[in-house]
């Protein structure tokens, strides 16, 4: 009896093994997430100064992977988090590109091939990730079985390799600057800028924004403020990813810009930034100092939205994405800091809420016209504000037969079923023998 039981047990364990593997396999996206922390090259700032630099070929996980998150913040030489009122992080972005093996290239090189996100602006906003002051308290996590597929060797042109370029735009607003808040809004008069970085005269009504706080400009200092302390800083970034495999559901990265005029034929005029005019007295009396800007844009490919987040600057009060029939797809609301520590700086947007719809519950169709709305308080003028919306879209997953009969997981289930039947039969036979034997003993 002991021999036969042992045999049955061993057989069961042996045949159950594939099933154990299968369940581990289906849970693996969370179980095998890898994480690496990197530092950008150092950048140097003193009171009022600006960096807007591109760092090519930054340290990044290599190989065919699915990205799960990208989080970043500014740190000093000791690795300590630097608060926004000292170093205002206007934005950081991470773009993917292909460069010829063994040769460093920048974006003006003919051999630089930008691997853009899925849309929809044509020239700008090609990044995969990007945030600003809200970076410390905004989730970038790609949930569940979803991942941003990168490093697929089939997509990399021969002779090239995949690389990443990091853009950091930061403004030093430590005591000494004349008007901290206007410095962060890149008010042209404070930067004494009338021409763009490339020498083109700026429009008369362009009074603030990115064209006035380009790399190496300096925001006006208090009268009599002398010198300044140069500080060495880094963007510290944490990338999480999993090795690519067939169980991962790839997602496309979309970025909508509220300044996009939204004509389906002309996708080239995302302006990235805009201006919020102050409200008039009557609006103020009626408590209606809200600037609502909207655009309607067609997304080329639909699917399931699995994540969404907006990007706004100080003064922002929320943003939302709607489907063609007016249904709310996702809204993203800023959190303002209330204290003085990094991640909670009073008056700054320190986080944006994110959307994580139930899988399959928020769907958009191919070519659907989406409306994106960005609200700001207009109780005062705001220059150079932004209204962006990032969202991740997976191809629709069939609800019925999400597992095809031929795939690996299904084969294991088949094997398991077969084993189950076999084990049941063996146990059944054994039990009947036992009973018969038992009856036999009793009868003695
Ligand atoms: C502003 O710029 C002009 C020329 O572009 C220069 O002559 C002037 O000195 C600058 N003013 C300050 C305060 O830097
Ligand atoms: C934006 O403001 C308008 C009122 O001007 C309001 O109807 C809308 O719900 C607001 N949207 C968000 C996302 O806050
Ligand atoms: C499920 O499958 C059946 C038969 O294949 C089909 O008729 C039905 O529409 C499917 N349902 C969904 C929600 O996909």
From TrEMBL:
<keyword id="KW-0812">Transmembrane</keyword>
<keyword id="KW-1133">Transmembrane helix</keyword>
<keyword id="KW-0732">Signal</keyword>
<feature type="transmembrane region" description="Helical">
    <location>
        <begin position="413"/>
        <end position="431"/>
    </location>
</feature>
<feature type="signal peptide">
    <location>
        <begin position="1"/>
        <end position="22"/>
    </location>
</feature>
<dbReference type="Pfam" id="PF07712">
    <property type="entry name" value="SURNod19"/>
</dbReference>
<protein>
    <recommendedName>
        <fullName>Stress up-regulated Nod 19</fullName>
    </recommendedName>
</protein>
<dbReference type="InterPro" id="IPR011692">
    <property type="entry name" value="Stress_up-reg_Nod19"/>
</dbReference>
<keyword id="KW-0472">Membrane</keyword>
């Amino acid at each position: 009896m002991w021999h036969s039981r042992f045999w049955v047990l061993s057989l069961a364990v042996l045949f159950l093994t594939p099933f154990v593997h299968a369940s581990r396999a289906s849970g693996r996206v969370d179980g095998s997430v890898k994480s690496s922390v990197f530092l950008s090259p150092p950048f140097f700032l003193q009171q009022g100064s600006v960096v807007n630099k591109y760092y090519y070929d930054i340290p990044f996980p290599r190989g065919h992977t699915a990205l799960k998150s990208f989080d970043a913040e500014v740190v000093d030489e000791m690795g300590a988090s630097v608060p926004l009122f000292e170093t205002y992080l206007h934005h950081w972005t991470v773009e993917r590109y292909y460069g010829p093996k063994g040769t460093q290239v920048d974006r003006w090189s003919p051999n630089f091939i930008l691997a853009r996100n899925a849309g929809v602006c044509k020239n700008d906003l090609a990044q995969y990730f990007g945030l600003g002051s809200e970076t410390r308290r905004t989730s970038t996590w790609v949930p569940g079985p979803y991942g941003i597929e990168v490093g697929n060797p089939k997509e990399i042109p021969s002779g090239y390799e995949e690389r990443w370029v990091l853009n950091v735009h930061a403004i030093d607003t430590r005591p000494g600057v004349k008007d901290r808040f206007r410095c962060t809004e890149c008010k042209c008069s404070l930067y004494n800028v009338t021409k763009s970085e490339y020498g083109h005269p700026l429009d008369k009504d362009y009074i603030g924004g990115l064209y006035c706080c380009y790399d190496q400009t300096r925001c006006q200092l208090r009268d009599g403020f002398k010198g300044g302390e140069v500080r060495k800083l880094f963007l510290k970034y944490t990338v999480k990813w999993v090795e690519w495999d067939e169980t991962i559901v790839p997602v496309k990265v979309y970025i909508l810009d509220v300044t996009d005029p939204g004509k389906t034929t002309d996708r080239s005029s995302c302006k990235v930034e805009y201006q919020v005019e102050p409200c008039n007295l009557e609006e103020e009396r009626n408590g209606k100092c809200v600037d609502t800007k909207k655009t309607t844009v067609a997304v080329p490919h639909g699917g399931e939205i699995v994540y969404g987040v907006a990007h706004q600057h100080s003064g922002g009060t929320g943003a939302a994405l709607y489907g063609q029939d007016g249904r709310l797809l996702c809204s993203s609301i800023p959190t303002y800091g209330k204290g003085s520590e990094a991640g909670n700086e009073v008056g700054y947007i320190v986080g944006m809420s994110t959307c994580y719809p139930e899988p399959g519950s928020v769907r958009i169709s191919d070519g659907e016209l989406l409306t994106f709305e960005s609200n700001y308080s207009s109780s005062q003028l705001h220059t150079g504000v932004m209204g962006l919306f990032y969202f991740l879209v997976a191809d629709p997953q069939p609800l019925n037969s999400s597992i095809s009969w031929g795939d690996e997981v299904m084969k294991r289930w088949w094997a398991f079923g077969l084993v189950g039947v076999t084990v049941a039969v063996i146990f059944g036979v054994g039990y009947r023998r036992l009973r018969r034997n038992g009856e036999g003993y009793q009868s003695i």
